[in-house]
Write a structure and sequence with these properties.
33% helix; alpha/beta; single chain; six-stranded parallel sheet; five-stranded parallel sheet
């Protein structure tokens, strides 16, 4: 392989999907230290990549400077100045397709993710459902680099070093005196969210002996978590109080993260923090379970009572009558799983 290899990696959104690229990129860089990578994504996601060697992060400003076809043409001209030799499109949406087309005149080494849409359709349909484990997103990402002739083995990730707790985090949560349990109770869609009354029971019991740290974003979530925080001395909401860099710093020091099928689960897993996920309308078989976490850490609803799960890949659709599906995951079961990991 030539020594001036420079791979442009495209994955513009969403937050959890970008986080899922991290274990693959880390493995690629470790196994091919001679290559250089430029990762193209949204500016606020840069902290995810801060500790990866030979990687330059390039911010795509898709709402202003790089908006629309003309903006993407401008972006392609900027990227061509970097002497890109290969393009790995881990997104494969209209925006990345247009960008790829502009770049194909400067390199023919372009590979694109296969999202397995027909398999996912078969997994989520109600009639003639094909209920089986699909290839994970991590393997789909790795396949893109393999198509560019870079072998990538993600089966045995290198253990990462915990960063030093930042002063900002220490000021907010104090020094560690017991177990720190992160809880991220929200998701992009209601169909992926554990009922808040049950989550309150989980928080109340775990906060008796541990420090519970609540994660979320957006004005509405911040208000809800602030109310929960006020009910116990051992619950701290960090929502809206830390930037992404400091949130990641804190997540790396958790003893356990409890999250939905959402971005925070992927942040925790990429930092090698033990991660428990609660599943509603979606299912790990679609390939979005957190990286390198035991299958038993995915707590599922009663599939005999709700046989049409998964109703959708992303949780944006719900089968009729499945609104309360997550109530079949008892708060006792969740607490027991957290305690198992802590012990």
């Amino acid at each position: 392989m030539q020594t001036n290899t420079h791979i442009l990696v495209i994955r513009l959104s969403a937050m959890g999907d970008v986080a899922m690229t991290i274990p693959v990129i880390k493995a690629l860089v470790e196994q091919h230290p001679e290559i250089k990578i430029t990762f193209l994504s949204k500016a606020f996601l840069k902290p995810l990549f801060d500790d990866i060697p030979n990687l330059n992060f390039y911010a795509a400003d898709v709402k202003n400077k790089h908006k629309g076809v003309l903006g993407l043409h401008k972006l392609s001209k900027e990227l061509k100045q970097l002497n890109i030799t290969h393009v790995a499109d881990l997104h494969n949406v209209l925006r990345s397709k247009i960008l790829r087309n502009f770049l194909k005149f400067s390199t023919e080494n372009i590979a694109v993710i296969d999202k397995g849409r027909s398999e996912k359709k078969a997994l989520t349909r109600t009639e003639n459902k094909v209920f089986k484990q699909l290839k994970t997103s991590f393997e789909r990402y790795a396949d893109v680099f393999r198509r560019l002739d870079f072998s990538v083995d993600i089966s045995n990730p290198t253990k990462s070093k915990k960063p030093k707790l930042s002063d900002t985090v220490l000021q907010l949560v104090g020094k560690k005196q017991n177990n720190w349990i992160g809880i991220a109770p929200f998701a992009a869609y209601d169909a992926k969210m554990y009922p808040l009354d049950l989550m309150q029971k989980v928080i109340d019991q775990l906060a008796e002996k541990n420090t519970v740290l609540l994660f979320g974003g957006g004005e509405k979530e911040v208000k809800i978590l602030s109310k929960i925080e006020q009910k116990s001395n051992h619950v701290i909401s960090v929502a809206g109080k830390l930037n992404l860099k400091n949130e990641l710093n804190l997540i790396a020091h958790l003893d356990c993260m409890l999250a939905m099928d959402s971005g925070n689960a992927h942040f925790a897993a990429m930092l090698q923090t033990p991660t428990i996920t609660l599943w509603g309308a979606t299912h790990p078989f679609a390939g979005f379970a957190p990286f390198n976490q035991p299958a038993e850490n995915c707590l599922l609803p009663d599939l005999e009572k709700y046989p049409n799960i998964p109703c959708s890949i992303y949780g944006n659709k719900i089968c009729d009558g499945y609104e309360d599906v997550m109530r079949t995951i008892s708060s006792e079961k969740v607490i027991k799983k957290v305690e198992e990991i802590l012990n």
